[in-house]
From TrEMBL:
Residues 255-282, 420-454 form a coiled coil. The keyword Repeat applies. Belongs to the alpha-actinin family. GO terms for molecular function: actin binding; calcium ion binding. GO terms for cellular component: cytoplasm. This is Actinin, alpha 1. Transmembrane segments: none annotated. It comes from Neolamprologus brichardi. It comes from the Eukaryota. Gene3D superfamilies: 1.20.58.60, Calponin-like domain, EF-hand. Residues 21-125, 134-240 form the Calponin-homology (CH) domain. It holds the Pfam family EFhand_Ca_insen. It is found in: Cytoplasm.
Length: 839
């Protein structure tokens, strides 16, 4: 009798042989379950192994190794040689064979043959089973107990009577393949049905041959332990292989899911960046368009469009820009956590490129706003000047109406001496009036010139009207000179002229012109923007009012001349037509215009007072705005310093309102960045397995050495921080080399600064472990059945559909010498996942 005991990993065959007849069927079925993989089987276990050929083939199948080349001769010596080769191979696996020789096997000794097969079963089917560092037998028993623990009426304590009712076999099958057995319908009192159900299902669906008979198990008080162990070990190997495949598939699914999620994040970033850059590209030309409008209404519409851009169109883009930075930082964090290479956006779509484009947008926006305000002020000035030009031109044209006809009359040719004198005096009065109007003509020309310089849209019509006035003025000057010369030639024929009429005409004409100018100035509209401008107008108006007493004296003097004329006419009974021949101005007109001037003065006073009050209110509002801006500005700056230690200085050329608006936008962006940084730290903590206490310790150490609150550490500060956390960095050459290696990791760009995120990443790598490319390759090798390549059908069988197709589309064809058509290279694919090669 021969049996095997496992001591310190070595198998020893000793004389304690079980009954051979009870094991014959079990061992034969077990051998055939492996031999059929090689396309053969045995009928009689004691006869078919005598030549050693099938025995060597059995060992090659179950070990996966090649044995020495067998002898093909039929002589006894050849058979003994083959059996010895098989026994030597068994001994090479740490099994000590006792009392078994090649001659007994060749002679067909049944007990020795069965003992040898039991030795093979223990070494290759049971010995490698280990659960929680137990022995082979204990490990197999513990595996059975764990798998059947949830099942009612199943209590596995050994490899004999615990299996008599068949529920243990059914429970193992149902635990791994519940669709094959309806466990709820099984009864403990029907062991034959239970055992036959388990044996039939195992043989049909699990490729486990029927090694036992239900009658043998039910009909004996204590079923044979070795037969049960042999049969149960087949279940263990069948299901443990599926478990390995499932574990490998899960690992690959996890890695592929991470890769697919990262690729989607990259696509989302590229699209969002492209859309934002395209919007900036379309918007900047609109903001740089400086084509002025001709009317105030059109410019007001442009200003309204710009306000809509600020209020409606730009804020969503500010959010998109902020979200883009958040997505980029989140993606880079996930890539670092999954050991993937950093994401490099397409050319021109880096975060810095977007920030540069955004800065160009802000610059164009500021210039456009200043241009709009200047254009509106220019149009206001133009409208005022144009209205003033029209008023002065209308007054001048009304004055010149009929003057050319008057100057071209030849009435002096038939006039009497007194009439000639009158015509001459009248002409002298006209010349005075003409000289008085010279200033108005110069003002009209100056206004037209200013309108041209300011690019007034209706400059052609203004120039044409101004040219007509100037041409007419030149014609009047020429006609006046010609008539004056004609009258002077006939002056010798005149004797007397009524000096009083002449004096009246000379004094009334400029006074009348002064009153007309005063009325024009008093009715002139004004546009001011500051309190200093209205104060200047008020001062000029007060100076004008100071001249009224002297003007009143002049008026009384002129009226006195007229009264004297009337007195002389009445005294000397002078025969006149009743009107002054030298002027058309009469005392009633002077008095009416004087009353009009006196009436307009208080109206002008009231208008100036109202405008002064309005400007004072505007000044109060400006000061109120300045006070509120001085409060909200420092508040925004304080919140930005709380949210982030990195601040961006605002340009000194910004207006207060723009300063507050840009500060508010930067505050929102800084808060969003801080939230994203905290979320990335939480993501790092969870993914790397870092506890909250460790993360708090890392942050406290970093902040302690970040004395300037810049959010970064210099090289010496970082070295002191590492030492405070327990890193042994000696002050020698070896310590300096180690610190240089660490600095190359946390500061790859050699800026001399270490950010908090780089510090956390380094500490995470020092305290946690992640999946590697080697682990993924090992998982693929399990799915491929230990081959160096994998087939598309194997991927579709083991992985979810979308991830299987993902692998098939990206795996390169396998080019090794052992490849088959359709073979895929999973090794290069696994290294590419971690950035060690290209997909």
């Amino acid at each position: 009798v021969i049996c095997l005991s496992v001591i310190s990993g070595a198998a020893t065959l000793s004389p304690a042989l079980p009954r051979a007849s009870e094991h014959l069927k079990t061992f034969t079925a077990w051998c055939n379950s492996h031999l059929r993989k090689a396309g053969t089987q045995i009928e009689n276990i004691e006869e078919d192994f005598r030549d050693g050929l099938k025995l060597m083939l059995l060992l090659e199948v179950i070990s996966g190794e090649r044995l020495a080349k067998p002898e093909r001769g039929k002589m006894r010596v050849h058979k003994i040689s083959n059996v010895n080769k098989a026994l030597d191979f068994i001994a090479s696996k740490g099994v000590k064979l006792v009392s078994i020789g090649a001659e007994e096997i060749v002679d067909g000794n049944a007990k020795m043959t069965l003992g040898m097969i039991w030795t093979i079963i223990l070494r290759f089917a049971i010995q490698d089973i280990s659960v929680e560092e137990t022995s082979a037998k204990e490990g197999l028993l513990l595996w059975c107990q764990r798998k059947t623990a949830p099942y009612k009426n199943v209590n596995i304590q050994n490899f004999h009577i615990s299996w008599k009712d068949g529920l243990g076999f059914c429970a193992l099958i149902h635990r791994h393949r519940p669709e094959l057995i309806d466990y709820g319908k099984l009864r403990k009192d029907d062991p034959m049905t239970n055992l036959n159900t388990a044996f039939d299902v195992a043989e049909k669906y699990l490729d486990i041959p029927k090694m036992l008979d239900a009658e043998d198990i039910v009909g004996t008080a204590r079923p044979d332990e070795k037969a049960i162990m042999t049969y149960v070990s087949s279940f263990y190997h069948a299901f443990s292989g599926a478990q390995k495949a499932e574990t490998a598939a899960n690992r690959i699914c996890k890695v592929l899911a991470v890769n697919q999620e990262n690729e989607q994040l990259m696509e989302d970033y590229e699209k969002l960046a492209s859309d934002l850059l395209e919007w900036i590209r379309r918007t900047i030309p609109w903001l740089e368009n400086r084509m002025p409008e001709n009317t105030m209404q059109a410019m007001q519409q442009k200003l309204e469009d710009f306000r809509d851009y600020r209020r409606l169109h730009k804020p969503p883009k500010v959010q998109e820009k902020c979200q883009l930075e958040i997505n980029f930082n989140t993606l880079q964090t996930k890539l670092r956590l999954s050991n993937r290479p950093a994401f490099m956006p397409s050319e021109g779509k880096m975060v810095s490129d977007i920030n540069n484009a955004w800065g160009n947008l802000e610059g164009a926006e500021k210039g456009y706003e200043e241009w709009l305000l200047n254009e509106i002020r220019r149009l206001e000035r133009l409208d005022h000047l144009a209205e003033k030009f029209r008023q002065k031109a209308a007054i001048h044209e009304a004055w010149t109406e009929g003057k050319e006809d008057m100057l071209q009359k030849r009435d002096y040719e038939t006039a009497s001496l007194s009439e000639i004198k009158a015509l001459l005096k009248k002409h002298e009065a006209f010349e005075s009036d003409l000289a008085a109007h010279q200033d108005r003509v110069e003002q009209i020309a100056a206004i037209a010139q200013e309108l041209n310089e300011l690019d007034y849209y209706d400059s052609p019509s203004v120039n044409a009207r101004c040219q007509r006035i100037c041409d007419q003025w030149d014609a009047l000057g020429a006609l006046t000179q010609k008539r004056s010369e004609a009258l002077q030639r006939t002056e010798k024929l005149l004797e007397t002229i009524d000096q009083l009429y002449l004096e009246f005409a000379k004094r009334a004409a400029p006074f009348n012109n002064w009153m007309e100018g005063a009325m024009e100035d008093l009715q002139d509209t004004f546009i001011v923007h500051t309190i200093e401008e209205i104060q200047g107008l008020s001062a000029a108006h007060e100076q004008f009012k100071a001249t009224l007493p002297e003007a009143d004296k002049e008026r009384l003097a002129i009226l006195g001349i007229h009264n004297e004329i009337a007195k002389i006419v009445q005294t000397y009974h002078v025969n006149i037509a009743g009107t002054n021949p030298y002027t058309t101005i009469n005392p009633q007109e002077i008095n009416a215009k004087w009353d009009k001037v006196r009436q307009l003065v208080p109206q002008r006073d009231q208008a100036l007072i109202e405008e002064h009050a309005r400007q004072q209110n505007n000044e109060r509002l400006r000061r109120q705005f300045a006070n509120q801006a001085n409060v909200i500005g420092p508040w925004i700056q304080t919140k930005m310093e709380v949210s982030s230690t990195l601040t961006l200085p605002l340009p000194s050329s910004f207006s207060p309102l723009q300063h507050i608006r840009v500060g508010w936008e930067q505050l929102l962006t800084t808060i969003a960045r801080t939230i994203n940084e905290i979320e990335n730290q939480i993501l790092t903590r969870d993914a790397k397995g870092i506890s909250q206490e460790q993360l708090n310790e890392f942050r406290a150490s970093f902040n302690h050495f970040d004395r300037d609150h810049s959010g970064t550490l210099g090289a010496e500060e970082f070295k002191a921080c590492l030492i405070s956390l327990g890193f042994d960095i000696a002050n020698d050459a070896q310590g300096e080399n180690e610190f240089s290696r660490i600095m190359s990791i946390v500061d790859p760009n050699r800026m001399g600064l270490v950010t908090f995120q780089a510090f956390i990443d380094f500490m995470s790598r020092e305290t946690a472990d992640t999946d590697t490319a080697d682990q993924v390759m090992a998982s693929f090798k399990v799915l491929a059945g230990d081959k160096n390549y994998i087939l598309a059908d194997e991927l579709r069988r083991e992985l979810p559909p979308d991830q299987a197709e993902y692998c098939i589309a990206r795996m390169a064809p396998y080019t090794g010498p052992d490849g088959v058509p359709g073979a895929l290279d999973y090794m290069s694919f696994s290294t590419a996942l971690y950035g060690e090669s290209d997909l």
